[in-house]
Write a structure and sequence with these properties.
It is built from 15 helices and 14 strands. It has an eight-stranded mixed β-sheet. It has a six-stranded parallel β-sheet with strand order 11-10-9-12-13-14, sandwiched between helices. It is globular and about 65 Å long. The two termini are 19 Å apart. It is 43% helix and 17% strand. The protein has two domains: 2-201 and 392-414, 3-Layer(aba) Sandwich (Rossmann fold), CATH 3.40.50; 212-389, Rossmann fold. Helix 2 (82-103) runs parallel beside helix 3. The chain has helices spanning 16-30, 82-103, 118-129, 143-148, 154-168, 179-187, 212-221, 243-251, 269-278, 295-300, 321-328, 340-348, 359-370, 373-390, 393-414; strands spanning 2-6, 34-40, 58-63, 66-71, 108-113, 133-137, 173-176, 195-197, 228-233, 258-263, 284-287, 304-308, 333-336, 351-354. It is α/β, with parallel strands linked by helices and 421 residues long.
Amino acid sequence: MKALLLSQYYPPESGSSAMRMSELAEHLAQQGHQVTVVTGFPNYPDGVIYRGYRRKIYQREQINGVDVIRTFVLTTTRRRSFGPRLVNYISFMITCIFGGLVAGRQDLIYFYSPPLFLGISAWVLSSLYRIPSVVEVNDLWPQAPIALGVLRNKGLIRLAEGLERFVYARVDRFLLYSKLMRQALVQAGVPQEKTEIRPLWVDTEFFAPRPSDETSAVRVEYGLDGRFVVMYAGNIGLAQGMDTVIECAQLLRERRDIVFVLVGEGVEKAVLARRVEQQRLSNVIFIPYQPVSVIPGFLSSADVLLVHLDPAPHRLGTIPAKALAYMSVGRPVLMAAEGESADLVARSRSGVVVEPRNAQAMADAVLELCDDAEARKVMGERGREYSVAHFDRGTLLQELQVWLEGIAQAGMRFGRMPEGR
């Protein structure tokens, strides 16, 4: 099978889309398939092109057996503003088509959404090559930017909703990890027979409990030794609502033994850092973005790992990839979210669920976990066991590969996927 993967982000970037697409691409390549990825020049999350790369029309490289074509993208450091982000998305949507032409004829196109603009690129290329397209939907768009208040203009909202209808009508298959997302797509007019639900995956061998010398090194380096560490690792953006965590830290400021550690970057980090400075909170520590290779050591150094998602209808079906990594390293999860994220933690009994946007509930849960080391140990063990049993990357990627092979074969037989197949 010759597979063309479209993703605006790809390693050395480390966001969830970059990691998922690289893991899928490398798995398919290891199984003997010819895989080409079209992506942008790495710049996430700061909007600055990474060292070692420079702006070109396109650049080709080999990464772990995968042919990677990087195309020009207009970057922006103003990620809080919808306009600059829109230009960023549209620029890659256009150059991605060029990258697909450079790649040549394929048997299958697979793209990651959001951004949904890649649906236009996939439609153009799948029409030219007469091959099926598959979209992996990880968040509902444009519902997400509308709920966040990033997209407010009524005219732009209508255009965004029109883009959603246009793309969804032209995609052959939809890959989802959530029943609630499937319901939302079906309500938007997507035939249910075009949808497929498959669990998220995590590399349970990589995201595994780390030895004490590795975790001790992290604690010593960042002054965490002897303190109860509540850690968040990931994007510090609008959807995460991390101001609630700062409010929780304010409530617990007298507990000198408890510290909140936020690892990562994002559009809200500077705002939160100013608030911490203004309130003179000594129990909040910001750690810059860390390469993926060291993240398991950071996660394993925590006593509790935190997820917070602002409540919104479109997020009820969201499960952050970080939650699976948290469970896989064997640490208890403090889940401040609603919907399927909360259900996952409750079902696996791997942590404590509290209401999002409720700093007092979060503070009470932190105190409860701090006082019960045995409960934390049991929760962590349950999370690790559940993750290995249900989200193991190797098993789920093999199953996904077989599904994609079937779609590619049907596409080769009929030129394009016939309706209902």
